[in-house]
Design a protein that fits this description.
With 271 residues, the protein is α/β, with parallel strands linked by helices. The protein has eleven helices and nine strands. It has a six-stranded mixed β-sheet with strand order 1-2-3-4-6-9, sandwiched between helices. Helix 1 packs across helix 3, helix 3 (81-100) packs parallel to helix 4 (116-123) and helix 5 (151-159) crosses helix 6 (161-170).
């Protein structure tokens, strides 16, 4: 992982990718090197089978303060439309890749998650929040639209259009308690407890067959926008038939019946 900047710490072990945003003095704001690193890592996950789940965390007192405005002031976005669009897409591609990659992503959010940081949390499959966590669509407070980098897609689907409008039109913060009430998280606890909880969730995920876990994330994402129950159950039927034909299916059943940990064949990185 030597090609990645020091602002993104990557630790991969036993099928788990642990990412840590490491710009604590800047509240882990997204500068261009960190944006490119996140974009590259999550995009490459699509083709990797050796990593089965991801935990995204951050150093310091904030999860992510959004775009690094100091960097933008020092080296402004190219005023040409094409240049500005390229920079816009560089950020939004992170969230698209997070949803597209087959690995479940757990985010541990402490302190502020604003703007792009809010989007990172929403693009994750599971969000774990510390009591001081608070999230907002800060874009609208900066002269931009409150709808940016996928937030206006994720938030209404998670909390409903009326509640989403309240936060996207005002830029107000959603604190940890309100986030739990709205269903953005099931867990609010001190940071050390969240870290242990994340490890427990990952351990449970790894008991699923590799194919079963990947297809479950895929189906959850597609079911959100499915046109009908028939469309969803057709997808579910397809997934189950694929799973029972997979070599790991027998091992999963045997491990369950024998009350032991499954021993799936190791999967390599095809790239």
């Amino acid at each position: 992982m030597s090609d990645f900047p020091s602002s993104l710490i990557i630790n991969e072990r036993d099928g788990i990718g642990r990412l840590t945003l490491a710009r604590p003095d800047a509240l882990n704001a997204l500068d261009r090197p960190l944006i490119q690193a996140l974009r590259t890592y999550f995009s490459e996950l699509y083709h990797r089978r050796d990593i089965r789940a991801v935990v995204l965390a951050a150093e310091g007192r904030a999860f992510c303060a959004g775009l690094d405005l100091k960097e933008q002031a020092a080296t402004p976005i190219n005023p040409r439309v094409g240049g500005a669009l390229d920079e816009q897409r560089a950020v939004r591609d992170i969230m698209v890749a997070m949803r597209r990659c087959p690995q479940p992503i757990i985010s541990i959010v402490q302190g502020s998650a604003s703007g792009g940081g809010f989007a990172l949390a929403l693009a994750s499959d599971i969000r774990l929040l510390t009591p001081d966590a608070r999230m907002n669509a800060a874009f609208i407070k900066l002269g931009l639209s409150g709808c940016d980098v996928g937030v206006s897609y994720f938030l209404p689907r998670m909390i409903g259009s009326s509640a989403a409008a309240e936060y996207l039109l005002t830029g107000r913060f959603i604190d940890a308690q309100r986030a739990r009430e709205l269903g953005l998280t099931n867990t609010v606890a001190p940071l050390e407890e969240l870290q242990a909880h994340a490890e427990g969730l990952v351990a449970d995920m790894l008991r699923a067959t590799p194919l079963g876990l990947r297809l479950t994330k895929e189906a959850l994402g597609l079911a959100i926008d499915a046109q009908s129950l028939d469309a969803v159950v057709a997808l579910e039927d397809r997934n189950q038939i694929l799973c029972v034909q997979d070599d790991d299916f027998k091992e999963g059943v045997s491990a369950f019946l024998e009350k032991r940990e499954p021993r799936y064949a190791p999967e390599g990185d095809p790239s």
